[in-house]
Structures are given as structure tokens and as C-alpha cells.
Amino acid sequence: MPDFNATLLREKFIIRDTMPSHLTDQELVVALSNRLVLPLQSRNKETQETFVVRAQNMHSCVRLGAQIARDFQVNGSLLNRPLPFNWEQAWHTVTKGYEETWNKRQWACVYHNGKIIYETEKENRHLFLDVIEQCDARNKDTYDRSLAIAEDAFKHAGKLVTIQHDSNIALIVNVSKEEGKCGIILRGPDKTTTFNFTVRTDSVDHPLEISHCLSAAAAFLEGIQLAFFIGMTRQKLAYELISDSSEEALRAHDAAGQLSRVKKAIGQFEEMFTVHYRPEAPDFNDLTKEASAYARKILNAEIVSKIEDGEKTGWIA
User: Fold this and answer.
1) Can you list the residues of the chain whose pLDDT is less than 50?
2) Nearest-angstrom CA–CA distance, 179 and 209
3) What is the pLDDT of residue 314?
4) CA 40, CA 52: separation in Å to the nearest integer?
5) Gap between the Cα atoms of 87 and 64, Å rounded
6) pLDDT value of residue 312
7) Where does residue 107 rank: exposed (0-12), middle (13-18), buried (19+ CB within 10 A)?
8) What residues contact 234, with CB distance under 8 A and at least 6 apart?
9) 179 touches 198 (CB < 8 A)
10) Cα distances (Å, whole numbers) of residue 43 to 77, 188, 190
11) How far apart are CA 86 and CA 23, in angstroms?
């Protein structure tokens, strides 16, 4: 298997109109996205296709990438085949269950050479992201150069804008024939840490594939997010800020079930391969407790602030 290297970026683009034509014109536009570039090669290196996956959240972006990589390795080219790749089925596999039920803002888009080859809910995706991918396809040097090209494109269209690009790495994946390495950046409420895992296999029956590493990384990314949401919501319930029948509480209940499924998927991954963590893998129960502690801190601060405001205005005697 040819070596595979990919990075997941969390991105924010801020587009400012430097010369609004009217005071009511929107002067600031923000476009958010997660971006994963998939450079895929067949085992004989004769077929090569590169896809860019963008999505609303990190784990769905990586999971869709895993679906694409898996089908490419099994069936070859996604773009030139008698029976087209079933994009809708791939997306349904990624989002079915918890994500489909509770995340109404979710979206995904896949590009090849700057052109959209698959997209979900267009209304949830900022179309500026399409412009960036078109500019990146025209410029093969560096991704950052695409911003200047995009600004020039707006200028030729009679619009003077400045584009600010903020990005940070969320995941690094390297896979060779012998092993896979993943580095995940864990961003908590109070600190940012990194953990890595290395995966190997000696079994001919279970060869290591790119999709295995991507799927495992997506499970960790989702588990971290779920643990944070569950911990925050449990503290709100403890403070009686929301009821047991509220939508947020019902979602947290389903999130706990989804977290159990994520843990099971990671367990199956560890049974199939030899996995080493450095430092240890995140404990989702500990992350949930940390999120509850963080919620207590910010909620207590809000309560104190409201009491002090009430005293100042005379509402509290």
C-alpha cells in the first residue's frame, strides 16, 4: 500500500467588505468548515485521485473520508467506473442515528480539482468555501496562496474585500504498509493537549487500511465532543436550569448511548490491531467529569454576576 498522509484542519474565514456600497450592506462574513484532503493511490500506483472533504463537524468529515478511502481501495477509481459511487449511501452511513436526529446544521461537500462532486444541504454551507476550493485548484503551490487569488477574483467582480484565514490542526494521519500513526489535538475548555496512537497488524486476514485509521480517529473526535456535551448538560440538570424533558436533556440521553457505541467501536479497533497510545488514550468518563466541573465554574460565575447585578439595580434587597 502506498504511503498516505492527511491533515484535518479546523478553519474560519472572515471576509470583510472594504467598500460597502450602502450602510445596510453586510460588512463581515464568517465561513466555518473542517477540511480533509485525501490523496489516494491504488496499490499498484496506477490510479491516483485526490479529494477534498469539507464538513460541519470534525468526526463526520473524517468518517466520510474513511468511506471514500475504503471504497477506493476495494473498487478503484471513484470517478471512472461503470457503477457510480453511491455518495448518498456513504453520507447516510456516516450520519445515521444520533447525528441525523440531533444535528440539523450538518452538511458535507466533496471536491475534485476544485469542482463539487457531492454536496448535502447547500443552505448550511457558506458558498465562499467553494470559491476557495476553485482558487486552490488553480494554484498548486500552497493552499494559503488561494486567499490572494480569491481576493483578486472578488476584485475583478467589482468587490474589494480582505480575507482573514484562521486555522488549526485537529488531526494528523500517516499510514504505511507496516503501520498507521495518528495524532489528535484534544482541545478542552481549559487546556489543549495532544495524544497519539500507533497501530500495527501481523494478521494477513486483517491488513491495515487507511479507512481503519480514519475511522478510529473519527471515533475519538466524536467521543471527545460527546463527553463534553454530556458533562455540560448534566450540570445544567443538577442546577435545575433545564428539565429532564427538555430537548437538551433528551439529546444528552441519546448522546450517552452514542458514546457507548463509540467506545465499542474503539474497543473493536483495539481487538483487531495492536494499538499503542502515547500518552494514554483519553478517558471519556474523565472528560465528562471535567466538562461538568467546567460547567459548574462558569454557571456559578453567571449566578454570582446576576445576583450582583440585581443588588445594583435594586431588584434584590
Assistant:
1) 24, 304, 307-308, 310-317
2) 9
3) 43
4) 11
5) 9
6) 45
7) buried
8) 252, 288, 292, 295
9) yes
10) 12, 39, 44
11) 46
Cell numbers found for residue 2: 502506498
**Per-residue buried b or exposed e for 189-225, using 16+ beta carbons within 10 Å of the residue's own CB:** eeeeeebebbbebeeeeeebbbbbbbbbbbbbbbbbb
The pLDDT value recorded for residue 247 is: 96
pLDDT tens string 274-315: 999 999 899 999 999 999 999 998 888 665 455 445 444 444
Q: Scan for cell 448518498, then name that residue.
A: 88
Q: Which residue from 146, 143, 133 is spatially nearest to 169, judged by alpha carbons? A: 143
Reported as a single tens digit per residue, the pLDDT across 73-105 is 999 999 998 888 999 999 999 999 999 999 999
Identify the residue whose cell numbers are 463534553: 228
Q: C-alpha grid cell for residue 299?
A: 454557571
Neighbouring residues of 40: CB distance < 8 A, sequence distance ≥ 6:
4, 48, 49, 50, 51, 68, 69, 72, 73, 210
DSSP string across 242-298:
S-TTSHHHHHHHHHHHHHHHHHHHHHHHHHHSEEEEESPPP-HHHHHHHHHHHHHHH
Please name the residue that has the C-alpha cell 490523496: 39
Q: Is residue 153 packed enough to be buried (19+ CB in 10 Å), middle (13-18) or exposed (0-12)?
A: middle
The contacts of residue 14 (CB under 8 Å, 6+ apart) are 28, 29, 30, 163, 164, 165, 166
Which single residue is written with the C-alpha cell 440539523? Answer: 104
How far apart (Å, rounded) are the C-alpha atoms in residues 195 and 317?
A: 51
Specify whether the CB–CB gap between 120 and 131 falls below 8 A: no
CA pair distance 151, 147, nearest whole angstrom: 6
| Residue 77, pLDDT score | 93
What is the predicted pLDDT for the residue at 315? 43
